[in-house]
Amino acid sequence: MRVLALDTTTEACSAAILTDTGLFGMAEEVGRGHAERILGMVDAVLQESGLALGMLDGIAACIGPGAFTGVRISVAVAQGLAFGADVPVVAVSTLEALAYQAIRGGATRAMACLDARMGEIYWGCFSQDAARGLSACGIPVVGAAADVIPQFAGAPFHGIGRGFGAYPALEGLAGAIVTAGARAALPDARDMARLGAIRLAAGEGRDPADLTPLYLRDKVALTEIERAAAKQARR
Q1: Do the domain assignments include residue 220?
Q2: Which is deepest, 84, 121, 214, 216, by most CB within 10 Å?
């Protein structure tokens, strides 16, 4: 299976290609300028792998949740490349990619968590799945850190993602195991390529026109009063 994956939805920008002989990838924490960087990264991993777009079996696109502009860039670039190469796409979320990092590291259950700004987090719970890499234990959620209830019925689980760094109280959740490395983790296209290959092999490829973003919320900014209240709540 030859799968290209790309992601521009968080502070990081990454691209990767999974082939029958190896995994080629690169990632940078750029903050801004994702649109200017991602196509160069795609070209770089294609060159390193020795493949052309038309030789791919499909493209794994990160659909969010994450920064609104970054999510739109990720989806649009994946669609454009897939249309040009006449290959199908599969969707992978940021939370799935994060959780898969923990599961590949040995976790059987993982809660992925990203800072959603505005006093909120994006989070989701996943368990190891031998056939599919991981399976969701519920729907992805956006909300206040204080409202998080892990969907593991008190069982131990690994926490991963920068939501844990932004809201240290999350580490007090019953059963949470959070390492320093996991606290700083961001989604990576290499994990998206791995999950994408599983989904393409299962026949889940779709027309690029059917690829849709996962935003979780519509509001992108707080009022001055809301910002003050959120700042006070984090003290």
Answers
A1: no
A2: 121
Instruction: Judge whether 129 lies within some domain.
Output: yes
Q: How far apart are CA 130 and CA 120, in angstroms?
A: 32
- Indicate whether 216 belongs to any domain: no
Structure pTM?
0.90
Judge contact between 41 and 26, C-beta under 8 A.
yes
- 106 is a domain residue: yes
Report H helices in the chain: 34-49, 68-85, 94-104, 162-166, 180-183, 189-201, 224-233
Specify the number of domains making up the chain.
2
pLDDT, tens digit (0-9, with 9 covering 90-100), for 10-68: 999 999 999 999 999 999 998 788 999 999 999 999 999 999 999 999 999 999 999 99
Alpha helices in 34-67 (DSSP H): 34-49
